[in-house]
């Protein structure tokens, strides 16, 4: 199997006055070409830091990638020079995130900015770049594309800006798109349209997508493969069906149960009691133990290993592994 991306034992820490925050603490996963991988977890679990690490956009100080490998087509991105990285960003790997206002500069038109992004990576004339920018806007479902190119970002609605940011990200045909909560700020109808659009684009141009969200409903819509993160670690890694049919980690089960199910009357939502732990004072053992209904003595002492409990379905929990790190 040729993977497009292989993340191996990634460790990214923040050196703060309160102490060291291991925001990403030994994360490993793979992405196949054209695959949509979902990354889900509560805010502060480290999922955005994973995306910033892949793009090498972790700012030092206070953040630093302190260990691991990020192999893109077999080459370690952590060994690339800043110049090489600038070529890869946008050209090979693109990032879209929640607030498109921060990816557009307010003082230039949309056409100017998408055109520049195209010209940065492709040797084409200004007119040709504008033509391609208009094509991209049409591809993401923006009507009157030629007029929109002349507009400034603040003149567009939130949904339109999000589409324009996707158009800009896709304008260089990236092999990998990292989408970090791209629809969180949008209302439900527009969110559904953007998700539909991204799935459609993924099929049309076969871009692999890492889709980061706190919303399991969105994961169920989008992803073929899911990583569940908790306190800087992947705690479950499975195919979408296996994960929803039989979530193994008590945290995943809690997340799934806290979603209201369709066709089911519920008076009260189940929720996971407690909060994400303080990142500078992680609990001993499994970081989920203070909130876990199934916690045992060993959970408060030692971190469980990640094991393959079922074919293609990995979990990090003492319910499934023995003390030697084997299958229980
Ligand atoms: Fe719960 Fe223990 Fe599993 Fe952690 S290792 S999720 S505390 S049962
Ligand atoms: Mg985030």
Automatic annotation (TrEMBL):
It holds the Pfam family oligo_HPY. Its main location: membrane. GO terms for molecular function: ATP binding; ATP hydrolysis activity. Residues 5-256 form the ABC transporter domain. InterPro entries: AAA+_ATPase, ABC_Ni/Peptide_Import, ABC_transporter-like_ATP-bd, ABC_transporter-like_CS, Oligopep_ABC_C, P-loop_NTPase. SMART domains: AAA (SM00382). It is found in: Cell membrane. It is a peripheral membrane protein. Keywords: ATP-binding, Cell membrane, Membrane, Nucleotide-binding, Transport. GO terms for cellular component: plasma membrane. GO terms for biological process: peptide transport. Belongs to the ABC transporter superfamily. This is Oligopeptide/dipeptide ABC transporter, ATPase subunit.
